[in-house]
Write a structure and sequence with these properties.
Thrombin, subunit H; six-stranded antiparallel β-barrel; PilZ domain-containing protein; mainly beta; 117 residues; PilZ_domain; cyclic-di-GMP binding; single chain
Length: 117
């Protein structure tokens, strides 16, 4: 597993269109297609409790199921996600399980960054 780095930046809450908290980030990650062992590099570009925005060189399509791995500070996160949108090399994924513990870790991270201003 590579050493992941992060550079989080909060988005202006008044400009949020989503119901769920989301912040702009730059976090190295990797993913594998569900049922496969080969990993592919990705970069998380935004992070939220409803989903994650990422960039990747490998083409992905809505409905693809992935295992996404990344590090939030000292915590290793691995979550099952589903591609919800694709535009070029940018993708939106949502958590497959709404009770996934990763969502709580993401929420804690967002709150920590928000109150660290």
């Amino acid at each position: 597993m590579p050493d992941f780095t992060s550079d989080a930046q909060l988005r202006d809450p008044s400009k949020q269109k989503r119901r769920n908290a989301r912040i702009a980030v730059r976090i190295e990650a990797e993913f594998r297609m569900a049922g496969e062992s080969a990993t592919h590099p990705a970069d998380l570009i935004d992070l939220g409790t409803g989903g994650i925005g990422l960039t990747a060189r490998m083409p992905l399509y809505p409905g693809d199921r992935l295992i996404l791995s990344f590090r939030l500070e000292d915590r290793y996160i691995e979550a099952s996600v589903v591609v919800s949108r694709a535009s070029g090399k940018n993708f939106g994924v949502i958590f497959e399980d709404p009770d996934d513990p990763a969502i709580g870790h993401v929420q804690d991270y967002i709150q920590k960054k928000f109150f660290a201003r």
